[in-house]
Amino acid sequence: MTPSKEEFEARLRQIGAERYHDRHPFHGLLHGGDCTPDQVRAWVINRYYYQHSIPMKDAAFMSRVEDPDLRRIWRSRIEDHDGTDTNEGGIRRWLRLAEAVGLDPDYVASCEGVLPATRFAVDAYVRFVRDKTLLEAVAASLTELFAPKIHAQRIEGLLQNYEFADDSSLSYFRNRLKEAPKDVAFGLQWVLDHADTAEKQDAAAAALIFKTDVLWSQLDALYGAYVDPARIPPGAWQPGEGLMMQRAS
Ligand SMILES: O=C(O)c1cc(C(=O)O)c2c(n1)C(=O)C(=O)c1cc(C(=O)O)[nH]c1-2
């Protein structure tokens, strides 16, 4: 028998409770004010790679959707990140954060210095959405169910603990608090409606687990490279590179 929608939703939420990256020790350091300026910079550089790939992931998704109604709803995700005539968009906001922590935004936008494991994980997410069923692709986006909590914690923790934090540098996260709930309410309902067999529920749950792994492994890579054992892989960002002041000199 197929578990009810309520049971299935509880299963998805349990995956978040156990595996979402709010539990990762790097976030404990970041939000608690225990990251050095270079560790914050490393996070901003690597996380940019995720941000810049999200609209490509959503475009890959839309390229496979035949239903215009679904495409119309989905396209606001791309606009949220890429911007519109009246909205600067998440990517620009992220680069404002980059500047606030002393990085040259052009360096960050070049994606040079991104950790190899960040690339592998994020590229795997884009490929997953391109290649798997639409149900699995939408289910993978449902980590966003758990994101508003971590964004609120991050705004509070960064404001308390770091001088660079202010309304301008943190505007990315404030905007996501407004944008994410509509996406996730739609995505959740869509997955609950379309996962109408036990097999489809299993596939959707596996997709969500895959996505929590994508997020977790990015932070593992960051922790290993810049916190402990602080072993930076060849070609990845070295502290001192890509700073704002290097532009003027
Ligand atoms: O800061 C975070 O922890 C976090 C997590 C996630 C997520 O759960 O995938 C997203 C975001 N932020 C985010 O800002 C964002 O735009 C976003 C889009 C997506 C997605 O899978 O389509 N996830 C996330």
UniProtKB/TrEMBL annotation:
<dbReference type="InterPro" id="IPR011845">
    <property type="entry name" value="PqqC"/>
</dbReference>
<protein>
    <recommendedName>
        <fullName>Pyrroloquinoline-quinone synthase</fullName>
        <ecNumber>1.3.3.11</ecNumber>
    </recommendedName>
</protein>
<keyword id="KW-0560">Oxidoreductase</keyword>
<dbReference type="InterPro" id="IPR004305">
    <property type="entry name" value="Thiaminase-2/PQQC"/>
</dbReference>
<comment type="function">
    <text>Ring cyclization and eight-electron oxidation of 3a-(2-amino-2-carboxyethyl)-4,5-dioxo-4,5,6,7,8,9-hexahydroquinoline-7,9-dicarboxylic-acid to PQQ.</text>
</comment>
<comment type="similarity">
    <text>Belongs to the PqqC family.</text>
</comment>
<comment type="pathway">
    <text>Cofactor biosynthesis; pyrroloquinoline quinone biosynthesis.</text>
</comment>
<dbReference type="InterPro" id="IPR039068">
    <property type="entry name" value="PqqC-like"/>
</dbReference>
<dbReference type="InterPro" id="IPR016084">
    <property type="entry name" value="Haem_Oase-like_multi-hlx"/>
</dbReference>
<dbReference type="Pfam" id="PF03070">
    <property type="entry name" value="TENA_THI-4"/>
</dbReference>
<feature type="domain" description="Thiaminase-2/PQQC">
    <location>
        <begin position="10"/>
        <end position="220"/>
    </location>
</feature>
<keyword id="KW-0884">PQQ biosynthesis</keyword>
<dbReference type="GO" id="GO:0033732">
    <property type="term" value="F:pyrroloquinoline-quinone synthase activity"/>
</dbReference>
<dbReference type="GO" id="GO:0018189">
    <property type="term" value="P:pyrroloquinoline quinone biosynthetic process"/>
</dbReference>
